[in-house]
Specification:
It is a single chain. The chain is mainly alpha-helical. The protein is 47% helix and 5% strand. It has eleven helices and five strands, in the order H-H-E-E-H-H-H-H-E-E-E-H-H-H-H-H. The strands form two sheets. The chain has a three-stranded antiparallel β-sheet with strand order 3-4-5. Strands 1-2 form a two-stranded antiparallel sheet. The radius of gyration is 22 Å and the shape is globular.
Length: 290
């Protein structure tokens, strides 16, 4: 991802400049240009379009600042020009799918069975809260069906053990698998993994008459479902694989039982919505005395 940001954004905008000639205003202008889409273009081969936006601009600024800080420590430059430059706000994800919308999306996916395995990637993302690339590039060697978890060797937050629900494990175990197949969701051609989830999701959402649904919305929908069920922010952070200060769970060899139970409940609730089953909520009524 860092190399892609360098090739797609940093080099086109700053590649003719020497490192020691950079000033904070140059970094600020780079951010604004990326956010405005000046470096957005089609990729060669597979992979779609390199987009801009505030989120991409902020992440590119952070990456470049880290590189320049290394240059400062090695005394290649005296001052890091990215230090003190305000990152553009990425904005909080507010869109998520309700249980009813999850049912609509599931119905649209069932109507498009000709797309086969592609549909199941979106279901896996919904049932587990995985990030896009965590789902797409998931190797079979990391899936521990017996312990109901994924043993990530590397994630955005480092190596970790991620509990997932029984419904998600059942989905993964039911996937077709050929001898020597490395990835859970392989590419149609070649030995790589599948990359077309955004396009598949867009087609399914058009059939379901749903708008503003991205791959990250699926992850946010998992979190929103967990929050609606009353789970704490710390539990939800553990389910999503966020780095939690002071937590040691990601170093354990056995998944946390509380997180496993939470993952089972959240995935089960989403699975019920995917099957278009009514999800009832029991409300305890207090006895009242007159």
């Amino acid at each position: 991802m860092d190399r892609s940001r360098i090739d797609r954004h940093v080099r086109p905008l700053l590649g003719r400049r020497t490192v020691w000639s950079l000033a904070p205003e140059d970094i600020e202008k780079m951010q604004l240009d990326i956010a405005a889409g000046k470096t957005a273009r089609k990729r060669n081969g597979r992979g779609g379009v390199t987009a801009g936006g505030k989120g991409v601009a902020a992440r590119t600024d952070g990456m470049l600042g880290t590189i320049l800080e290394l240059a400062r420590r090695r005394r290649l430059i005296s001052v890091n020009p990215a230090r003190g430059v305000d990152k553009l706000p990425e904005g909080k994800q507010r869109r998520f799918l309700s249980l009813e919308e999850i049912g609509q999306l599931s119905a649209a996916m069932r109507d498009a069975e000709k797309e086969g395995i592609e549909n199941r990637i979106g279901l896996a993302a919904l049932l587990t809260g995985l990030r896009r690339m965590e789902a797409l590039a998931l190797p079979w060697g990391w899936v521990d069906s017996r312990s109901r978890c994924i043993r990530f060797e590397d994630t955005k937050s480092g190596a970790q053990l991620r509990p997932i629900g029984s419904a998600a494990i059942s989905l993964l175990d039911a996937l077709p698998r050929s001898a020597g197949q490395r990835f859970v969701f392989p590419a149609g051609r070649g030995e790589g993994h599948f990359i077309g989830l955004p396009r598949v999701l867009a087609r399914a959402c058009r059939r379901a008459s749903l708008s503003a649904v991205t791959v990250h919305v699926l992850r946010h929908s998992f979190a929103a479902t967990a929050a609606e069920m009353g789970f704490s922010e710390l539990t939800i952070a553990g389910l999503l694989g966020h780095s939690v200060p002071g937590a040691t769970a990601r170093y354990a060899h056995v998944p946390d039982r509380a997180l496993l139970a939470a993952a089972d409940q959240v995935a089960g609730r989403i699975a019920a919505a995917l099957d278009c089953e009514a999800v009832a909520e029991v409300i305890e009524l207090r006895n009242s005395r007159r």
